Amino acid sequence: MSAEKINAINPNEVESRLENDIPNELVESFNEMITRLYCNGDATVPTKEVVKLAVEKGLSIDEIYDKWLNNHIIERIYRKAGWKVVHDVPAYNESYEPYYQFSRRQNLD
Question: For the chain, which residues make up each domain, given as ranges?
Answer without folding.
Answer: 34-104
